[in-house]
Amino acid sequence: xxxxxxxxxxxxxxxxxxxxxxxxxxxxxxxxxxxxxxxxxxxxxxxxxxxxxxxxxxxxxxxxxxxxxxxxxxxxxxxxxxxxxxxxxxxxxxxxxxxxxxxxxxxxxxxxxxxxxxxxxxxxxxxxxxxxxxxxxxxxxxxxxxxxxxxxxxxxxxxxxxxxxxxxxxxxxxxxxxxxxxxxxxxxxxxxxxxxxxxxxxxxxxxxxxxxxxxxxxxxxxxxxxxxxxxxxxxxxxxxxxxxxxxxxxxxxxxxxxxxxxxxxxxxxxxxxxxxxxxxxxxxxxxxxxxxxxxxxxxxxxxxxxxxxxxxxxxxxxxxxxxxxxxxxxxxxxxxxxxxxxxxxxxxxxxxxxxxxxxxxxxxxxxxxxxxxxxxxxxxxxxxxx
Length: 386
Ligand SMILES: [Zn+2]
Description:
The structure is a single chain. This protein starts with 5 loop residues before the first strand and ends in a 7-residue tail after the last helix. The strands form four sheets. The chain has an eight-stranded parallel beta barrel with strand order 4-5-6-10-11-12-13-14, surrounded by six helices. It contains 14 helices and 16 strands. The chain is of the alpha/beta class. Zinc ion binds next to α13.
């Protein structure tokens, strides 16, 4: 196991877990939300802002950084932390999800995926080994293994083939990772020798495939495990059911990461099912589209009803936007296409997500997560107010 990786379980409340994840660049209080910095930037805000909002960890995308500016360049700059000036932990995905969703003319084989860059059409290869090498050069605190992400819905046999290949790729990726982290291979610069690697469970919405994926991936042995292939369009109740089914089988002494989820109520419901880590583009992407998350549900700031509304977006929110600005002003900025509209909306939405996680952590510590969950779900409506 990576020398710097530790996970301490501090409290539980039902299925919910309060923990502390120790990584090479610092501690992550769990359950935690990881803001998504696709291209080593969180759209609309500065990393100093994100630090001030209290994020312990951010996520960056391997596929995008490999294409531009290149992981070699980032390694020469001293690694991703120094390059983007983010002193806290970073998790990088493996690039698998983007190859399957963004790349053009991809060709899948047992060896890996050959694809054309969506930027300039260059032919590139991503394999279990090269995904490890790219993330090693980037120097993330947590590297994700390379997996095959089938789209949803998937037929059982297609999901089975992808799951089985992902387990075979897990072994290859782990072998390469251990060769690097144990110093047996020294031809790559190590900008973060304390890197940890997480395995990914696949199997779509089929519980038998999830069972086999857990068995195979845990047998390979990673520092921790993620549940992939959910939050890709399946009904919410399927996501919750597969999350609960899969999380229950993962080692209790390791953090569990639900990839790509979700809406605020998904976070609460998934914590109840034993999840410790989340990432999602919703708070940042929706902010740029003028949707602000509040305790009672999302609001569309462009709505005419806010034109002369002197209240902040969420009167209970302590974020820099709500402490200073009215819905009327934020609506004006959005309608006028001002850049600061995206910035102020993103600050609020990220704060809302991070603050929801703070509330969850506190509730688990106090043993009151059940009532927190009940109140949250009673108050929060997924449907945007008109
Ligand atoms: Zn706010």
